[in-house]
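seq:
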Amino acid sequence: MTEAIFFIFSIVLIAAAFGVIASKNPVHAALYLVLSFFTGAVLWMLIKAEFLAVSLVVIYVGAVMVLFIFVVMMLDINFEELRKGFWQYVPVAGTVAAIMAVEMVMVLMHRAAAIDGAKLPDPAPGYNNAKVLGELIYTQYFLPFQLAAVILLVGMIAAIALTLRKRKNTKYINPAVQIKVKRDDRLRIVSVPVEARPSVEPPKADDGEQQA
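struct:
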């Protein structure tokens, strides 16, 4: 049953990955990528890596892909213009993809021949995947973990700095100046003198009407 589930979700994962690169609509491509993340999480569950599976769903599906879809739909980019000249690079891309696929098959066949009949060991009673992973991160791999966090922080600050551009035609409000505003600066009572209305005289009758 485990092997059947593995092959089913592997086929779904490959089909979803192909949909990501073949879809013309970026929103559809993002949804295909969400599907590939879900199926990848199922494969993580099959090898009893529950923490990595949940992290894949929460971080990538719940945060990264939602943000990506929101930005794509908000910017309304003309992707037809960006895709011009796409087909001229297809032969080179197909050759590189074929070479990578052959290399991956050779590596997997070599490992299968070297460790024929190997399988994952059964975990010991009371084994907790998240606890073991946390112990490794904060003991043996503490320095690489901190370096990765610093690199991600620098990347986040750089992305924010690149988007902070002052535009001349953009109107914005300074909260500090807005708080300092007093009543007299916003409201002014002006006394306007009342003007006398001009009197309207009745129209004079014509001479023929007066004689009648």
